[in-house]
Design goal:
This protein is α+β, with helices and mostly antiparallel strands. It has a single domain (12-180), classed as Peptide deformylase (Peptide Deformylase, Alpha-Beta Complex), CATH 3.90.45. It is built from three helices and eight strands. The protein has a five-stranded antiparallel β-sheet. It has a three-stranded antiparallel β-sheet with strand order 5-4-8. Strand 4 (87-94) and strand 5 form a beta hairpin. The radius of gyration is 16 Å and the shape is globular. The N and C termini lie far apart (38 Å). The relative contact order is 0.21.
Length: 184
């Protein structure tokens, strides 16, 4: 396992659509392991392969609380089959957009089909933070960022901020959870 560098906005690779893996083999499992180690090191609760420069449809998530044992989940070729009409709002952030958080409204529940670490086809019904995290990470696989769900003004401000930091050669270091539950 290895910790890999996380791409940050405005890196154009973050806007690339990822390709299906088709089969979860040893190479894909090694990628999943590297992604988990990278995500835990950041620290975050979710990571898409494109965030480490690999344009494959692979995501990892771990929503375990700080004092609980790790509970990693790995998803290859995830696809959302159903979305609820009800919405929920969470304050989201992203390891590729460090130290920037905004409230995002997404469907409260989703049903997702994917391949697990053992190449078994599975479906999961998710709600709450897991539903939000799955949607956030699957967006990455389609070249979308959480800021794309914000108003044009907020999105443009975020893009300008990170473009300026990039021009000034001040790479932002990913810190904090990728998605934080809104408190209060």
């Amino acid at each position: 396992m290895a910790i890999r560098p996380i791409l940050c906005l405005p890196d154009p690779r973050l806007r690339a659509a990822s390709e299906n893996v088709g089969v979860v083999d040893d190479e894909v499992r090694a990628l999943m392991d590297d992604m988990l180690e990278t995500m835990y090191d950041a620290p975050g609760i979710g990571l898409a392969a494109i965030q480490i420069g690999v344009a494959k449809r692979v995501i990892v998530i771990d929503l375990a609380k700080k004092d609980d044992p790790p509970a990693p989940q790995c998803f290859a070729d995830p696809e959302i089959l159903e979305r609820s009409e009800d919405a929920s709002v969470y304050e989201e952030g992203c390891l590729s957009i460090p130290d920037y958080y905004e409230e995002v409204s997404r469907p409260a529940k989703v049903r997702v089909r994917f391949l697990d670490r053992n190449n078994e086809r599975r479906e999961i019904e998710a709600e709450g933070l897991l539903a939000t995290c799955l949607q956030h990470e699957i967006d990455h696989l389609d070249g979308k960022l959480f800021i794309d769900h914000l108003s044009r003004l907020k999105r443009e401000r975020a893009i300008k901020k990170f473009a300026k930091a990039s021009r000034l050669n001040e790479p932002a270091t990913p810190r904090g959870p990728e998605i934080r539950e809104k408190l209060g």
